[in-house]
Write a structure and sequence with these properties.
548 residues, FAD/NAD(P)-binding domain, 6-stranded mixed beta sheet, 21 strands, steroid dehydrogenase activity, acting on the CH-CH group of donors, FAD/NAD-bd_sf, 8-stranded mixed beta sheet, KsdD_DH, 2 domains, Flavocytochrome C3, Chain A, domain 1
């Protein structure tokens, strides 16, 4: 072949496309190798809701939010809980990312055409302490165009370069080995897979029709994490989160299998923090699945009553949208793989959003007329479709009917008397505008933020109020999503070996690097930081590799 790349990028997801774009902007030639068909160009980011973490943005200020780098730093480090020797580079990455999110991140994206929905969301509201886990203020900026809107400028840059011969995109090329010569990574070897017309995210064949070898001075691993490989998830599951679930849904396609992590390790890369991971507890079975065990996450407001599988209420402050891993740890210690939301039609209309670009056609399609329906009566269309067709939803006019419906789809016996008691106790707390129920206090506090009051948090009401009905119960499953550990790198994205030395010629970005350094989130994340980690780590490594 006459085309000789300056860099090879393994993986055509967001982090890889950003790294490739930076290399192309510096005048370098790039080859991207990707095992999936061209339909999956853009990787997991395409499926995302497009949330990005920004600090002291114009959108925040217009909503009356007073944010600062100092406050965000308190929140990040209070959430991360760094406590290991291996956290040296993750700490450096966290600090650098905070500077980026408070500095040029928004302007850099804006220059590329990325725009944001004006209402800033408040995700991961925390554990109830000022110095602990969680966002003190709303920081979840929804991209106009959701995940595809984030991917688009980088995909366009790479595809344009491919059209004029500065880049090559080689789909159905599965990397099986990093070539190491004289201690330096000099290329990749692997299998050419048979063509496949599968739609985005759907399983593709693994039929080998040939092999390949490519060489370049730089190889960038951008292959993602392990969320589609439940065996690897269970193998890495930490004791602090209890026993791994016997049953989980997948929030990512099956090809997110972690293969490249072991391949990079064989080439000298140091893998760290593999036991740090991010899975959701509000997963529901997709009634129209694309991949195996396809789950969708509910992005909940704070008003639903959360019960474990037996029917006991989750303890304070484990409310919807507050503490993802705290809730996961508690539920795993109950011994069941699922839990329940109990709510009303009034709550589902105001508070339920579904994660993912395909579940938000108004934001994804930049359809203002469709978006306006979010403030009119009725649940958003995709939410209503799940309520009507989803296997995990129960709708009833009375509490007895609701509990009977829950019992029918339960895997373990539901204590209906216990569940009913919690509903009645909660409702009695609404006889006054004050009380001792901390969840109701949190709901009232949330509505002091204009964004929550407008489109996110229902006014407090009794679950058994007929005017707010019908009653709804949702069976919630554990949903695999992100790896928070990975390949250790320095701040340039250069891969490090176990002794701390650089592996020459090798870089890692995105989820494969724990979104930077081998785990810049520490034990927990603040949301809106996964896409941002792909952007930042791809940018850092692409620029550094262009200088190499």
């Amino acid at each position: 072949m006459t085309y000789e790349p300056d860099a090879i990028v393994v993986g055509a997801g967001l982090a890889g496309l950003v790294a490739a774009s930076e290399l192309l902007d510096a005048g370098r030639r790039v080859t991207i190798v990707e095992q999936e068909p061209s339909a999956s160009f853009g990787g997991q980011a395409w499926w995302s809701f497009g949330g990005l973490f920004l600090i002291d943005s114009p959108e925040q200020r217009r909503m009356g939010v007073h944010d600062s780098l100092a406050l965000a730093r308190d929140d990040w480090f209070g959430t991360a809980g760094f406590d290991r020797d291996e956290d040296h580079w993750p700490r450096q990455w966290a600090e650098a990312y905070l500077q980026f999110a408070a500095g040029e991140k928004r302007a850099w994206l804006h220059e590329k055409g990325v725009r944001f929905f004006p209402v800033v969301g408040w995700a991961e509201r925390g554990d109830g302490t000022a110095g602990g886990h969680g966002n003190s203020v709303p920081r979840f900026h929804i991209t106009w165009g959701t995940g595809p809107g984030v991917v688009e400028p980088f995909a366009r840059r790479v595809q344009s370069a491919a059209a004029n011969g500065r880049a090559a995109i080689r789909n159905r090329h599965r990397v099986d080995e990093l070539i190491v010569e004289d201690g330096r990574v000099t290329g990749v070897r692997g299998a050419v897979l048979a063509p496949d017309g599968s739609e985005r995210g759907a399983p593709s064949n693994r039929d080998v029709v040939g092999d390949f070898e490519l060489r370049a001075p730089v190889v960038i691993v951008a292959s993602g994490g392990i969320g589609g490989n439940h065996d690897l998830v269970r193998a890495a599951w930490p004791a602090r989160l209890g026993e791994p679930p016997a049953s989980m849904l997948s929030g990512v396609p099956a090809h997110v299998d972690g293969r490249m992590l072991g391949i990079a390790e064989n080439a000298g890369a140091h893998l760290i923090n593999g036991d740090r991971m991010w899975h959701y507890t509000e997963g529901i079975q997709n009634w129209d699945p694309i991949w195996a065990r396809h789950g969708i996450r509910i992005l909940p407001g704070p008003s639903s009553l959360w019960l474990d599988a037996r029917g006991d209420r989750l303890p304070s402050p484990l409310y919807p949208g507050f503490d993802t891993l705290g809730t996961l740890e508690h539920l795993r210690r109950t011994g069941s793989d699922y839990s329940w939301f109990v709510l009303t039609q009034k709550i589902i209309e105001k508070e339920f959003a579904l994660s993912g670009s395909e579940q938000n056609p108004d934001l994804t399609g930049k359809d203002v007329r469709l978006l306006a329906k979010r403030v009119t009566p009725g649940a958003p269309g995709p939410v209503e479709a799940f309520k009507e067709k989803g296997a995990d939803f129960v709708v009833a006019d009375t509490l007895d009917e609701l509990l009977a419906g829950m019992q029918r789809i339960a895997d373990v016996p539901l204590d209906t008397e216990l569940a009913a008691r919690h509903v009645h106790e909660r409702d009695r707390q609404l006889d006054n505008e004050f009380g001792k129920d901390l969840q109701l206090a949190a709901i009232r506090a949330a509505r002091r933020y204009r964004g929550d009051r407008l489109i996110r948090v229902a006014s407090p009401h009794k679950l058994l109020d007929p005017a707010a009905g019908p009653l709804i119960a949702v069976k919630l499953h554990i949903l695999t999503r992100k790896s928070l550990g990975g390949i250790e790198t320095d701040l340039d994205g250069r891969v490090l070996s176990a002794d701390g030395s650089v592996v020459p010629g090798l870089y890692a970005v995105g989820e494969a690097s724990g979104f930077g350094g081998g785990g810049m989130h520490g034990y927990r994340a603040l949301e809106g930081t996964f896409l941002g980690g792909c952007l930042f780590s791809g940018r850092q490594a692409g620029r550094a590799a262009a200088r190499a």
